[in-house]
Design goal:
The complex is a heterodimer of chains A (110) and B (114). Chain A is an all-beta fold and 110 residues long. Chain A is built from no helices and 11 strands. In chain A, strands 2, 4, 5, 9, 10 and 11 form a 6-stranded mixed β-sheet that branches. In chain A, strands 1-3-8-7-6 form a 5-stranded antiparallel β-sheet, with no helix packed on it. With 114 residues, chain B is mostly beta strands. Chain B is built from no helices and 11 strands. Classes of the chains: A mainly beta (110), B mainly beta (114). The A-B interface holds A 30-31, 33, 35, 41-45, 48, 88, 92, 94-103 and B 4, 31, 42-43, 45, 48, 50, 55-56, 91, 93, 98-108.
Chain lengths: 110, 114
């Protein structure tokens, strides 16, 4: 089954820096979503980008989608300690399921 | 809105015992999903329902696992008998429309089988 795969797996940055994560997938998608998971909590939806969109913004988040390369990136600008979490991409292929990647751990050092 | 509610939050049980996990989806959501999360395998979809009807249970590991949704506001995931390899965090999520849209996750149930 298709599955988003994030890269890199772990990222440690200083507060104020930008964090970039990448996600790749294997087959065509309807949309791609990014989720955040704080330690010991459930996943929280961050942003959704449709297959016909190339870039989307939400606050300090910027998501890009390149369907020709089957990849997406999530940029968090001006990171804060509260951004410390795991970030997952999930792909939708029109069959009512989401396929999640293994997640990126991001640690923002105050 | 209280969000997706799961109970219990933590469950410790001995191998061979029956375990029942519970979920209350967000009111009005017509899709409900059960996931399992482990370090080794990541987040796996076990089963999902649409309007209380199971649509795809291909992710259910084996016959020891069963899930029901008797009404729009309640679902259970049962493991009988439980085994140590079932230890994981189990999440329930609900969605307002089809699964291709954003899902709202509960806080999860951390299951430990000794």
């Amino acid at each position: 089954s298709q599955q988003g795969e994030e890269d890199p797996q772990a990222l440690s940055i200083q507060e104020g820096e930008n964090a970039t994560m990448n996600c790749s997938y294997k087959t065509s998608i309807n949309n791609l979503q990014w989720y955040r998971q704080n330690s010991g909590r459930g996943l929280v939806h961050l942003i959704l980008i449709r297959s016909n969109e190339r870039e989307k913004h939400s606050g300090r988040l910027r998501v890009t989608l390149d369907t020709s390369k089957k990849s997406s990136s999530l940029l968090i600008t001006a990171s804060r300690a509260a951004d410390t979490a795991s970030y997952f991409c999930a792909t939708s292929h029109g069959n009512n399921r989401l396929a999640f990647g293994k997640g990126n751990q991001v640690v923002v050092i105050p | 809105d209280a969000g997706v509610i799961q109970s219990p939050r933590h469950e410790v049980t001995e191998m061979g015992q029956e375990v029942t996990l519970r979920c209350k989806p967000i009111s009005g959501h017509d899709y409900l999903f059960w996931y399992r999360q482990t370090m080794m395998r990541g987040l796996e979809l076990l089963i999902y329902f649409n309007n209380n009807v199971p649509i795809d249970d291909s992710g259910m590991p084996e016959d020891r696992f069963s899930a029901k949704m008797p009404n729009a506001s309640f679902s259970t995931l049962k493991i009988q008998p439980s085994e140590p390899r079932d230890s994981a965090v189990y999440f329930c999520a609900s969605s307002l429309t089809e699964g291709g849209y954003e899902q709202y996750f509960g806080p999860g149930t951390r299951l430990t089988v000794t």
